[in-house]
Amino acid sequence: MTLALFSAAVLTALTALHLVPDKVSLEVGATSDREIRAPRSARYEDKAATAALRQQFLATVAPQYEVDPYAAQSAEGAVQQVFARLETARSQATTQPVSERVQPLAEKLLRDLDLELSPESVRVALELDRRTFEALPAHARRLVLDGMGLPGGIHEGTDDLQRAADLVASRARSLPLASGARTLVREVAQHALRPTLAFSAEKTEEARRQVAAAVKPVMASIAFGEPIIHKGEIVTEEHLAKFTALGLRQPRLDWMGVFYLALFMIGVVALIGAYLYRFHRPVYNDRRLLWLLVLIVVGSIALFKVAGTALGVKLETAQYGYFGTLCVSVAGMLIAVLLHPALATMVAGLLSLHLGIMTNLDLRFAGVALISSLVGIHGFSRIRDRGDVVRTLLYLCLANTVAIWVLGSLSGNTLPDLLTGAAWGIGASMLACLGTWLGVALLERPFGITTHFGLLELSDMNRPALRRLLQEAPGTYIHSLTVGQLAEAAAEAIGADALLARVGAYYHDLGKVMRPYCFVENQTVENIHNRLNPTLSKLVVTSHIKDGVELAREYRIPAAIVDFIRSHHGTGLVKYFYHQAMLACDGETPLPEHHFRYEGPRPRTKEAGIVMLADSVEGAVRAAVAERPDPARIQSIVSHIIHDKAADGQLAECDLTFRDLSKVEAAFTRILQGIFHARIKYPEPLTVEGQKLNGLSDGTASERTPSAVDAGADREGRRELAGS
Fold this sequence. Notes:
By secondary structure, the chain is mainly α. The protein folds into 5 domains: 2-43 and 223-246, no CATH class; 47-64 and 201-217, no CATH class; 67-199, no CATH class; 255-448, no CATH class; 455-675, Hypothetical protein af1432. The chain is built from 30 helices and 6 strands. It has helices spanning 2-16, 47-59, 71-91, 98-113, 119-127, 130-148, 160-172, 179-192, 201-214, 237-246, 255-279, 281-285, 287-310, 317-338, 341-358, 363-380, 386-410, 415-443, 452-458, 464-472, 474-494, 498-507, 534-554, 559-567, 575-585, 606-625, 631-647, 658-675, 688-694, 708-714, and strands at residues 36-37, 42-45, 65-67, 197-199, 219-222, 227-229. It has a two-stranded antiparallel ribbon. The two termini are 50 Å apart.
């Protein structure tokens, strides 16, 4: 509660700084000795703007129409007139061929009736039999009536007439006539179409008068940061009106505004607290992480508010907003990397809203800040290598440019403003990525957080701990690399953190460098456990957990990776030495199983559970099928080990589901079958004696004595499993 109230008070104080403007004592006729910008937005009446707005509204008045009662009658008359002319032409006695009569008749119709019939239609009209020709006017009238029945009517002077003509053409295609006759009817019907709604000048003028009367006086707005008067400019009455509207002549703190601002900040802090309690309980219960969240949020707002003043720079309105966008983006990306992407999304949304308030409700900057933050959060929460950082930077530049261009266009910005804004967006993207990188570097270790940036550094094979593992326990090193491949593939299959699983696998057996000769993967001559009793062997083997934790502290390995070292065996049974101990006591004395179990803890995360399974599976498969690869056997071993670990309760404290285990099993099987695949055995070169025997002239085959290598290859050795 104390932390919440402190956060709300600090946020209110930082936000309220812009509520107290500087006093302006200039009078009309005086020369301004400095540039004065609006500390907040204000409104006042602007008569010139009102007149311009009235003209704009008048320009939007649509033409008014009234119904023409004679339109249908006129259209039918046009149809009758055309067919009457065609009938007259048909009935004229002439010896001219039809082909010679077509062109003169078409020109006459165009001249007298303004009807442009195609030559083919004129020819059809002259050649049709009488019965068919006499039926054409009725078809044309029906088409005309259909076309003039267009929904909404046919408005004079608009494209409605063309739409009606298109409708007539569509209906004409279904007429029960020959193709040429249908074309003739269509052309006549399209010619006869008439507007059903005629333009009314009186009604249009009345509509313009009503619109003009409805226009209200325009209140001119002064935007936050807008220059009111420039240095060296003479003060006018308009300037004084703006000073008065802004409260610059008698400045005072708007206590009511401060009160509402405080309520808003308390609500925001309470909302974030409720969200943390409901969805991010580990962060809510960790005071160290809460202070980190407060530090990031307060720091971003403080940087936004005081950076320009501290540098002695007077930012313009747009520059102020773009700088705020930068601060919001950095805060969102830092929270995504250091805490959680979902929490970062919520905080970024609230900070974007706060930016809108700080810029006097200019939603353009709030929108740009939100889009920029979301893109940055998505990119930085999935960082796997340096290439991801570059891609995130490119996506952020593109998102900022598009958002600024779109929202700026909607706000009426000019092309130069849009270009300037795009440049600011690209610059803010670069600074945001740089700021996030530096912020993570500064905050990661003090607050005990392991981020993907830190994991990428830990995955470097030249790290001192991994170099020592390679030099002193090469078998364990190779084993760890293979476990890392398995864990990464399985984590990707179930949607877990693949990078964390891989890096945790690299370090899980770090403790074996203290006594590498005690572990079978590093033994080349003798298995030391052949000379030790099972109880002592168990102590030696299990001690690599404690040794690994101590070495991790020595090498300053983060706690998140130390958890993998502690839990990669859980409380599992050291089965080999337990069975050896059971054989040694001949079953006479019951042997407590818990004496041969690891101390734990069991894995508490999906990633730790995956590494436990990968560690067990890799060792078992390598021991069982290294000499005789068998895909079916590999799958059987993987399935058995996973079910055995689950049945033993080793996965009870992590969030792995049965569906997850199925996907993990499939991933393990695929990778291991690729590693332990069958190979062709190449023949060994013949010895000098063998070559001589092979070249004997009698051609008889000589039996070659098997070499030591052949004998060794034919013999199957059994390797004892000891702590791997």
